[in-house]
Amino acid sequence: MSELLNLAQVLLVAHAPALALGIGAIIAVGVIVIIVLLLPRKPPHDHAADQRMADLHARIQTTGELLARAQSQLQQTVHERLDAVTQNLGQSMQTSTKHTSDHLQQLHARLAVIDSAQKNITDLATQVNSLQSVLANKQSRGAFGQGRMEMIIQDGLPKDCYEFQATLTNNARPDCIVHLPDSRPLVIDAKFPLEAVTALREAKSDDERKAASARMRVDLGKHIAAIADKYLIPGETQDMALLFVPSESVYAELYDGFDDIFQKAYRAKVIIVSPSLLMLAIQVIQQIRRDARMRDAADKILVEVGLMIADVQRLHDRVQNLDKHFGQASADIKQIVVSTEKIVSRGEKIQDVEFIDAPASAEIIAAPIRKLGTNE
């Protein structure tokens, strides 16, 4: 009995990993131990008991071998599953790394675009500050308005139609004069007083707005009066002049809130224009010059029209002659068709041996020698 207990203890120690991995192995060993404990005690020299012990030992060995194979299979299965999990984990890590790299590249590209946009905004802010500093200076602001006006004039008119900084007979020098067909130029002034507009925009209280509005009326009134006094010369310039406002927004503010200024300018024969209105005036000037050229060339146009009418009459006569020739040719073709039809008919009769029984008369014999051009 002690040997059996020792053998069971050895088996338990030897197969401890398998027992830890499989509940079935633990149950099997427990059953073997219970069977050993329940065996009846036999005398030491009982051969049947020895045989049963030998059989039990063989069964225990067989069970141990089965447990060992089960443990090996279980380890192999565990290793295979661990390999599969490791492979899937590696593929998942590679995919995640690739996606992360792609997202990082896209993020870098977007950050580059944002950096470029920020740089453009910074440059634009610098340009706006430069423009503000230019407009703050009266001389620089005048040069700015002069530049815009010159670009519009140069784009719309030929070079011989305008002149910048020309000198009039009273030694006044307007910003631009446009030559018109009646030899009296149209004067354009680009020195618009913008300080009052700036003060009006920056006003925060009602009193400040009233003061800025009053200053606006005074400054524009003085400037309009100066234009009418210096540039409207009877017999030398046109009866009206243009006051150029280099900003559409400023012109809109004036038109909405200072109608009395426009009325005063109209009475003084000074027209306040924005860039778009100046371009429209340039189009009108182009049409006026075109009409003047047409009037100057009216005699030449009449001569050319008379020559063209004579050419058309000669063409008409030649077409009539050609029509006569075509009519004669058509009549000749019809006669030729009649003759060919008769020749074909006679040939068919000859082919069918349909001779005339009566003797050939002199008229039939002489038929082949008749002149061509008859209807027979």
Task: Write up what this structure looks like.
This protein is mainly alpha-helical and about 375 residues long. The chain has 3 domains: about 1-110; about 140-295, Trna Endonuclease, Chain: A, domain 1 (3-Layer(aba) Sandwich), CATH 3.40.1350; about 315-370. The protein has 12 helices and 5 strands. The chain has helices spanning about 1-15, 15-20, 25-40, 45-135, 140-155, 195-200, 205-230, 250-255, 260-265, 275-295, 300-350, 360-365, and strands at about 160-165, 175-180, 185-190, 240-245, 270-275. Strands 1-2-3-4-5 form a 5-stranded mixed sheet. A hairpin with a 7-residue loop joins β2 and β3. The longest helix has about 90 residues, at about 45-135. It is flat and about 160 Å long. The model is unreliable at about 1-20 and about 360-375 (pLDDT under 50).
What order do the helices and strands come in, and which of them pair?
Layout: H1 2-14, H2 16-21, H3 23-38, H4 47-136, H5 138-156, E1 162-164, E2 176-178, E3 186-189, H6 195-202, H7 206-231, E4 241-244, H8 248-257, H9 259-267, E5 270-273, H10 275-296, H11 298-351, H12 362-365
Parallel strand pairs: 3-4, 4-5
Antiparallel strand pairs: 1-2, 2-3
Helix pairs in contact: 1-3, 5-10, 6-7
A few lines on this structure:
The protein has 376 residues and is mainly alpha-helical. The protein contains twelve helices and five strands.
Query: What pattern of helices and strands is seen along the backbone?
Result: HHHHHEEEHHEHHEHHH
Mean pLDDT score: 76
- C-alpha end-to-end distance: 156 Å
Measured on Cα atoms, how large is the radius of gyration?
60 Å
- What CATH calls the topology of the largest domain is Trna Endonuclease, Chain: A, domain 1
| Percent range of helical residues | over 70%
| Corresponding CATH architecture of the largest domain | 3-Layer(aba) Sandwich
Q: Main sheet, how many strands, which sense, barrel? A: 5 strands, mixed
The overall number of domains is 3
Number of helices: 12
* Order of strands in the sheet with most strands: 1-2-3-4-5
List low-pLDDT spans. 1-21, 358-376
How much of the sequence lies in strands comes to under 5%
Top CATH class of the largest domain: Alpha Beta
Structural class: mainly alpha
Count of β-strands: 5
